Amino acid sequence: MDFALNAEQQMLHESATRFFADHHPPARARQALSWSDAAQQQLWRDMAEMGWMSLLSSEEQGGLGLGLTEAHLIAEAAGTQLLNLPWASSAVLLPLWLRAAPDDAPALRELARSAAAGERAVHCVSARDRIWDHAGQCTDLVVVRGLEDEGQPLEWSVLPWAPADVQAGLDPTLTQAAAVVPSTACWQALAVPAGARAHARAAWRLMQCAELIGLAQAALALGSGHAVERVQFGKPIGSYQAIKHQLANAWMAVDNARLAALYAGAALDGHLPDARFACAAAEYTAIEGALQATRTVIQVCGGMGFTWEHDAHLYLKRAQHQAARLGGASRALTRVEELVLA
């Protein structure tokens, strides 16, 4: 399969990269703005106007009718600038669920419609989580039972955020809250067929991998720039093997992860028989590549890289946060091994 980016996809990626660089640079990510901030609401509306909230919807439904490769490019560009809005849930997971259950869950469908219009930011989390991120950085929190367990019925409930719930987490660009499902939560079933359910979940996790790849690329650009500009003993530190070999190894890890993720997206879109393995490999390489790259960049930047004033720690902490959301590298590697042995 030829899954190299065509001209239209390259233009989409360049456009998204410029958009997020202009509208959500790391300096803004540091502020960890809540949804109540007018700038966040405007950014979400702008993303909707670009068509990115209805990327996977058909043209008959007013969407762009594109696939997961294009969605990956948006998520990658968003990760580069540490976007702290729940794009993957609103633009990927919900539309794929509702595409498979067109006559089910009218309330959830209305949430998805509002998200596509840029009116609401919907974040989906698992009822099994201990911490929920994007607290206060979305309008609606959809808690799902059976999100990670394919053997459990898929049920959902919308919970409101309370200002007292919001707290700081490991990643300073994101706010979080303790995962507490009230006994009064109203659960509703979502009749998504097993195959479509697995497809949507894999696509949603793949978007998180794309964000990891994007932030790793941004971190490497930061570290490489420093290695070129920082002069020691009359030479740029990037000319020394101890530095350039680390950066080269990190670049290869991230590039491998990107190729794996792009193939996984193409495999999901094409319903290829190896799609499950491709997604598992993409998760493992994305987690490992992002962690290797962000750790390397902090080392390359030296004492400056260890300070909170420098952006390097933002990429590292986001990488650790996303890796934890995906279950960690060990879990991903175990999944790869299981699929190989099967």
From TrEMBL:
Q: What is this protein called?
A: Acyl-CoA dehydrogenase
Domain Acyl-CoA dehydrogenase/oxidase N-terminal per the UniProt entry, residue ranges? 7-80
Q: Which family does it belong to?
A: Belongs to the acyl-CoA dehydrogenase family.
According to the entry, every stretch annotated as the Acyl-CoA dehydrogenase/oxidase C-terminal domain falls at 205-321
Q: Name one GO molecular function term.
A: flavin adenine dinucleotide binding
Entry keyword set: FAD, Flavoprotein, Oxidoreductase
Q: Which cofactor does it need?
A: FAD
Q: Which InterPro entries match?
A: AcylCo_DH-like_C, AcylCo_DH/oxidase_C, AcylCoA_DH/ox_N, AcylCoA_DH/ox_N_sf, AcylCoA_DH/oxidase_NM_dom_sf
At the top level, the lineage of the source is Bacteria
The record ties this protein, via Pfam families, to: Acyl-CoA_dh_1, Acyl-CoA_dh_N
Origin species: Comamonas testosteroni (Pseudomonas testosteroni)
